[in-house]
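Hey Z.,

So I finally got round to the zinc ion thing we talked about over coffee. Here's the setup:
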Amino acid sequence: MSDRELHCDTCAGVVPFEAPPCGDGHGADCPELICTGCGAAVVIATFAFRETRLASRRAPRRPSHARAA
Ligand SMILES: [Zn+2]
Ligand SMILES: [Zn+2]
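And the result:
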């Protein structure tokens, strides 16, 4: 179990949150937590985002007609 205490606006206090069954395949890295007090779902973003889009990644061009020197 990966409980963690967070502040819940609905519960007006710090309550333990627990990770819900993840249906998105996040596994242990699922950013979703459910308030054990009121059942509200929150998404935490404490994990480091990775840049998945590389800026203009180009393959080096090679001459298609290589000449024998
Ligand atoms: Zn998830
Ligand atoms: Zn709550």
